[in-house]
Amino acid sequence: MSQNDPTQILRSQLDRLLREHGDVKERVAEYQRRRWLSPGEELELRTLQRLKLRKKDAIAVAERELSALETSLKLD
Questions:
Q1: FRET pair for 20, CA 20 to 30 Å: which of 9, 30, 48, 73?
Q2: What share of the chain is helix, strand, coil (3-state, %, to 5)?
Q3: Does the pLDDT of residue 2 top 80, yes or no?
């Protein structure tokens, strides 16, 4: 496979998104384990939760695109 292979590019993007989602998930968990958060930390937690959801949505899109691409390549 070449470096410009569309499936390889999508897999690479998906891997990156999965790593980023995992990192954000860990940061959210750290905040949620605390008994008390400052107002700034509460804001950071909400921001991270939204980011986590955006990453999850982006993962779903990348998975659908990869699946569709792989299906179309099998049909060719």
A1: 73
A2: 85, 0, 15
A3: no
